[in-house]
Structure to design on (316 residues):
């Protein structure tokens, strides 16, 4: 069965897209909240230890949801798709947290959320499917905003830059795999159960070798990181039930806006004119896909008969 991730301008819009956009924005707020805590004490612990504890706590959060209808719900027919999503998803977190060690929160987040720029390229290589021109314009405008905020200089082209950029690429691959699993009607709880289980198993031996005992307060902070990550992943997975990656992935730029505001309000690092201008372009780029798509649909509706909407959604 051929899965179409990027719908062209001649196809109908995904059902409940506005709902998906709102849920997606909330998901990224939870993610950046977790990242802020990591940024505060990332130098105190090995990155792999933080990732391991994060996945264990998140697994405990999702486990009751995944098993509420019995053990038979765990079995999947799409293990390769899960492994792609899990491997690159865990890799994205690891590279992003490494970038946080070398860069400030806003710059590391900016590089990590270049994922929307890579999503169409990844899908074109993976499935050889054409991407609508309105999607490309949205991504270009958003990426210009990212570049303005980042203000590339000699300092940014360092190891942290490489980590952040590859975190964005890994995240793009994971996002495409999430959409594939949703199109295959995989339950959200099963997708997340595999993700957190794989992450915990993969990082365990490395975390064990590099273990640094946390204090009571640090344990609580790591637990909070895991809970915020679990809630963010649940919301992100749900959002992709209501829209394709081409429409929702540009909203990842909102994390850059959140990071800038948190740095300003919580850490006294005010937004510069570059940050303000870049933020405006990011918001425009994030919403351009939906606006242009809506206008195209309105114009198309005057020429052809409306098509039937997609039926059914993957169960929880």
């Amino acid at each position: 069965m051929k899965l179409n991730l990027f719908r062209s301008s001649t196809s109908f819009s995904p059902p409940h897209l506005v709902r998906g956009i709102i849920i997606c924005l909330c998901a990224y707020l939870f993610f950046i909240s977790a990242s802020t805590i990591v940024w505060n004490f990332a130098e105190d612990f090995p990155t792999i230890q933080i990732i391991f504890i994060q996945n264990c706590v998140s697994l405990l959060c999702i486990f009751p949801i995944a098993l509420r209808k019995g053990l038979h719900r765990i079995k999947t027919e799409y293990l390769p798709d899960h492994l792609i999503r899990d491997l690159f998803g865990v890799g994205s977190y690891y590279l992003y947290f490494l970038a946080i060690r070398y860069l400030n929160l806003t710059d590391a987040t900016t590089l990590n959320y270049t994922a929307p720029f890579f999503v169409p390229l990844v899908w074109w290589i993976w499935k050889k499917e054409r991407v609508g021109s309105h999607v490309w314009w949205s991504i270009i405008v958003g990426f210009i905003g990212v570049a303005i905020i980042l203000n590339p200089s000699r300092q940014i082209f360092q190891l942290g830059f490489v980590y952040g950029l590859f975190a964005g690429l890994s995240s793009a691959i994971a996002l495409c795999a999430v959409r594939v699993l949703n199109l295959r009607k995989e339950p959200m709880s099963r997708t997340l159960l595999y993700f957190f289980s794989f992450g915990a198993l993969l990082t365990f031996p490395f975390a064990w070798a590099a273990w640094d005992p946390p204090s009571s307060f640090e344990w609580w902070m790591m637990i909070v990181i895991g809970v915020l990550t679990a809630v963010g992943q649940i919301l992100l997975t749900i959002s992709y039930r209501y829209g394709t990656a081409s429409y929702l992935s540009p909203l990842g730029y909102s994390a850059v806006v959140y990071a800038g505001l948190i740095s300003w309000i919580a850490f006294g690092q005010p937004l510069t004119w570059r940050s303000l201008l870049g933020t405006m372009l990011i918001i425009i780029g994030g919403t351009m896909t939906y606006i242009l798509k809506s206008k195209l649909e309105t114009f198309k509706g005057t020429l052809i008969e409306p098509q039937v909407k997609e039926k059914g959604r993957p169960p929880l």
Residues 17-132+152-245 form one domain. The longest helix spans residues 273-301. The chain has twelve helices and no strands. The radius of gyration is 19 Å.
